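HUMAN: Mind making up another protein with tokenized structure?

ASSISTANT:
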Amino acid sequence: MEKKISNQLLLWTVVWFAVLGIIIAFLGHMEMAHHQGIIAKYFASSSEQPGSASNKEYIYWVTLTVLLAVIGLLQFLTMARTLKRTIAEAAVKARPGKKQRPAAVQPTGQDKMISAMEEQARSLHLLSLLQREGRLVDFLQEDLRPYDDSQIGAAVRSIQESCQKALNEFITLNAVMEQEEGEEVTIPPGFDVNAVRLTGNVTGSPPFKGILQHRGWRVSKFSMPSLSAKQDPNIIAPAEVEIG
């Protein structure tokens, strides 16, 4: 590629300098014709031979030709060097560098809606599992006012055991704070406001001292079964019909 470009540069340099040489030669010839009479009188009165005029004209043409050739060569070398340097710089820029991280794609309104629906489906799926294993929704929706406390107590025990079994099967829970409830605890500076909620007379800056009212819960493992694409997440428990 570089050789081809250099040859083209040389061709155009020769063409344009040939044109320039013709123009200069034409002007020089006219100037010499203008002074021909003066030169003839000068040589007639001098001791030089008659061929001296043609010798001077020959020297003029040779000098002009050499100057044009030198200028053309210098222009060619300069242009070729400049062009090669330009091509080299372009090649360096074209080399693959470090891959730039693609710009973060902003979620569209439809993406946000789909994400919200997926979160809702997961939450409802957990509720359906607790209903299936411990009939939690049935218990919460039941009107307990007609029943005695002894009857409610027996039902609650069964529901609590079934729901606890289902919850421990899919989720592992750990206490946020290891101390026992009712103990005095100290909240250091820089505590996680999402993990510890302060109540009561909260003034000043930490550290704070107070009584632990609830240890809190933190999920350390979550392994919910996948939700079937054909399953409607809004159906917590299907209706049951016994065919006789």
Remarks:
- The CA atoms of residues 19 and 54 lie 24 Å apart.
- Residues 172-199+206-222 form one domain.
- The chain has six helices and four strands.
- The longest strand covers residues 217-222.
